Amino acid sequence: xxxxxxxxxxxxxxxxxxxxxxxxxxxxxxxxxxxxxxxxxxxxxxxxxxxxxxxxxxxxxxxxxxxxxxxxxxxxxxxxxxxxxxxxxxxxxxxxxxxxxxxxxxxxxxxxxxxxxxxxxxxxxxxxxxxxxxxxxxxxxxxxxxxxxxxxxxxxxxxxxxxxxxxxxxxxxxxxxxxxxxxxxxxxxxxxxxxxxxxxxxxxxxxxxxxxxxxxxxxxxxxxxxxxxxxxxxxxxxxxxxxxxxxxxxxxxxxxxxxxxxxxxxxxxxxxxxxxxxxxxxxxxxx
Length: 287
Known about the structure:
Elements: E1 7-20, E2 23-24, E3 31-38, E4 41-46, E5 49-54, E6 58-63, E7 78-82, E8 85-91, H1 94-106, E9 110-119, E10 122-123, E11 129-135, E12 139-144, E13 149-153, E14 159-167, E15 170-181, E16 184-192, H2 194-210, H3 219-229, H4 237-241, H5 245-257, E17 261-263, E18 270-272, H6 274-285
Antiparallel strand pairs: 1-2, 1-3, 1-8, 3-4, 4-5, 6-7, 7-8, 9-10, 9-11, 9-16, 11-12, 12-13, 14-15, 15-16, 17-18
C-alpha cells in the first residue's frame, strides 16, 4: 500500500459484477476470495486475479437482503454502484464490514448542514453551516462550526429524502433526514458532493427501511398520529381530536401493537416511533 494508505478490513467472502456499462449481466457467477478494504480502495482478490475499486468512485450502497433467486448462494450482500457498473459483495460478518466501509467513505467528510430545517412539522429559518461527519455506532455524528453537535441515529430515522435544493446560492444535492430530538420530530438537511450525499442517504436509509410498515390506518388513528407528530401532549390528545379518553387509549394500544408508538409510562403516555413519524409526516404533507 502507498503512503498514507491504511488497511481497514480483510475478509473472506464472495463477489460478482451484475451490471456492466449500464447493462445487466445474465451470467451471474459468484467468485470466492478475499475482500480487502483500505481508506482509499477496495480490492477483490480471487483465483482469477484481482480487481481494484477506488472508494472515491463508489456512488451508492444498497442491498444486504437477498431477494434474487439468481444470487441465492449467499444470505446477504452489499450492492456497490461504481458509475454505470454494479458489483455485489458478500463478506463474512457483513455487518462489521459494512460499518467499516461506511466509515471509510464518510468519516471526516466536510458537508453543509441545516439544523433543524424543520421542527414539529414547521419549517425553520435556519442558516446552512459547515459540518464534519463521523460514523459512530449505528449513527452519523455531525460536528458543526457553530459548536453544535447533531446525532442522527439510524434506528431513529423515520425518512431520508434525496433531492436538489438551492444551497448558498447554488443548486446542490441534499438529503433531508427526519429524526427526533427529545421526542420532537425534526429534519436535518445535509448537502455535499453527489457521491457523499448518496452514500450518506444509503446509510441512514437502513433505519427508514427497517421502519417501513404496511398498515392501513383508520381516520381516527391518523388524527391521533398527526396530533402527536405536531407536538400535542399525549394527555391532551382526547380534547384535541374530540374523542373519549377510552377511545384514544384503545387507539394507543393498537398503534403500539403496530410498532408505530412506544409506551413511555403505564397509562396514556406514548411517543412516536420512527415508523409512526414517517406515516404521520406523509399524512401531514397530504393535507
